[in-house]
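does this look right to u?? histidyl-adenosine monophosphate version
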Amino acid sequence: MSNTFQTPRGTYDILPDEMGKWHDAERIMREVSDLYRYQEIRTPYFELTKVFDREGDSSDMVNKEMYSFRTKEQYGEQSESYTLRPEGTAGTIRAFDQHKMYATNELPVRLYYLGPMFRHERPQKGRQRQFTQYGVEALGIKSPQLDAEVIALGVDIIKAVGIKSVKVAINTLGDDDSRAAYRQALKDYFAPHIDELCEDCHRRYEQNPLRILDCKVDGDNPVVLNAPKLSDYLTPESKAYFDEVLKSLESLGIDYEVDDRLVRGLDYYTDTVFEIISVRPESGKAATVCGGGRYDHFIDYYGGPELSGIGFAFGVERLLTLAVEEGHVFNEDRPLDAYIISLGETGSIPLQVAQELRHAGLTAEVNFVPRSLKSQFKSSDRKGAKYVVIIGETEAAEGKVNLKRPGEKEQITVDRKDLVRTIEGME
Ligand code: HAM
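got this back:
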C-alpha cells in the first residue's frame, strides 16, 4: 500500500543526514554577518496580508503566489486575512517601523534574517513552495558605498561556501523621475504591440509596464527585447549615484556586469538593483542565487519616516546546491566520541558513564538493547565512534570500565572516575 501522507508539493523534509551541511552553511552566514556587524532579526512567519499586499503592487509574488488565509471570528476578534511570508523584507521593515528602530539606533540599522519563506509557485528545479532565505537589510541611509557594502557581504558569503562560478549583475532603476519618464516611454512603445503579449502582461501594462521586461513567458519575445532601455531615461542624479556604486565596487575588487535589462521581480525597488547569478549551464532556471536592491518608498509605508534602505536575499537551497556542485565540503555535525556497550545486568551505570562524558564535553551514545557484544561493536562502527567503552557486570560492580579504540586490539581497564582524563590523554 502506498503511503498517502507525503510532504505537500513543493516542500521537502531535511533528514538528519543532510543537516550537517545546513548547520555549517548557517554558521558561515552568521559569521560573515558578524564581520559586517549585521544583527539578526526574527519576525513572525505570518503577517497581516496587507503587510505584503501593498497598494498597486504588480509583482507575481503578491498577485499570484501568496498563501493567504482568513481567521475565524472568535476570542472577541474580527476575522482577518493573514499571509505566510513570501519574503523577509516586508516583515523586517514592518518591525523597524513598529519598534521605531530608526529613532533608537544610529543609522543605518544593519539587519539580517534566516528562515523559511512561502510562495505558491509551480515547483521546478530550484523553486520550492517552502524555501529558506538568508537576507540582509541596511536601513535608513542612502549611500552608494552602503550599496557596495551590501553587495560585498553577499559576495563574501558566496565565497565562504566555496562558490566561484557566479557573476554579479547590476542595474539601476533610477529615481522617481527617471522611472516615471521610462514608464511612459514603455507604455508608448508597448501600446501598438499589446496583443502580442501574454495575459499577465496586459495587467502589467496597466499596473507597472516595467514588469513586462521581467515576464517569464514574454521574456524572449522580440517586442520585449527591443523595448526602450531605462538607461536612456535616467536623471543626471540617478546616473551619478549609479556610477558611484560601480566605482565603489571596483575599489573593493568586486567584478560586476551591468545588465540594463535587469528589473527584478518585486515592485519596491528604486535605483540600484542586483543579482548574483550562477554561470554554470547546469543551473538553468535556478541560476539566480541572490537578488536585491535599494528601496526609497518602503519604510514610510508602515508609518515610519521617509527613509531609504537596501538589502538582498539568498535562496539557501540554491546556495547549497551550487556549493555542493562546486565540490565544497561542508563540516558535518559533531561525530560520536564514545559508544557505550553494556553486557549483562549493569543497571543505569552505562547511562551514568555517558552522562559523565557528556558533561565533560564529549559526545556519547549508550546501547539500550540487550544483544551480543559483536552486534554492539557493529553499531559502534556504523556510527563511527572514536572510542568504545565496554561495561560488563563485573566492571559495573567494581566501578571500572573497559576502553578501546575501534580497530585496535588493545583494551585497557580504567576506574570510571578516570575515564574522561584517560580519553583526553589519548587524543
Ligand atoms: P527574490 O528575488 O524574490 O527577492 O528572492 C531572493 C532569492 O530567493 C532568489 O534569488 C532565490 O535564490 C530565492 N528564491 C525565491 N523564490 C524561491 C523559490 N520559490 N524557491 C527557492 N528559492 C527561491 C526577495 O525575496 C527580496 N526580499 C530580496 C531583497 C531583500 N530585496 C531587498 N532586500
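Residues 282 and 412 are 54 Å apart (CA to CA). idk if thats expected tbh
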